[in-house]
């Protein structure tokens, strides 16, 4: 069974993953002291977009960001709330087969941890319609906020800090944070560059 088939089975088995937030999260036992993760997956499906995901209460709460996140404080990036995903999906990089929802190429564009800012948990702030947080990724750094506009429409905005970049362009780094591959190399099934494999082993240690 391929990585995608395993993940797809997990998603289908659990149905609406939000139901799991009320259950004990045994997978996180022993790592409660660690910061929650985030991942940004570049996704070439029917249209190119970026899936922005935050670990909240044992699942990846997710938004589709058509233009991708920005490090410029002047940019308000539309973010459409989508279905939650299992934590295991954070590491998925590869091809979603035809016939499956979201079929296309997926890259782990950025990944790291985040810290909730302000009062209340991430879940509480999301419920209130505004989540402030600080990212510590390989590409994205510093303070951000997600603000609900209406329904499933949110805005992802960079807050002012020393990491803000007024002239930022997301096309400046087109390689995977996980493997160093481009979208074309992922689609072709090319192996990760040797240097990226070494870096990945260092991160595991």
Largest sheet: number of strands, sense, barrel closure:
8 strands, antiparallel, barrel
Helix content: 10-25%
Q: State the helix count.
A: 4
Overall shape? globular
Describe the structure.
This protein has 205 residues and is of the alpha+beta class. It has one domain. Helix content is 18%, strand content 35%. It is built from 4 helices and 10 strands; from the N terminus they run αβββββββαβββαα. Strands 1-2-3-4-10-9-8-7 form an 8-stranded antiparallel β-barrel. Strand 8 and strand 9 form a beta hairpin. It is globular. The chain starts with a helix and ends with a helix.
How would you briefly describe this protein structure?
Helix content is 18%, strand content 35%.
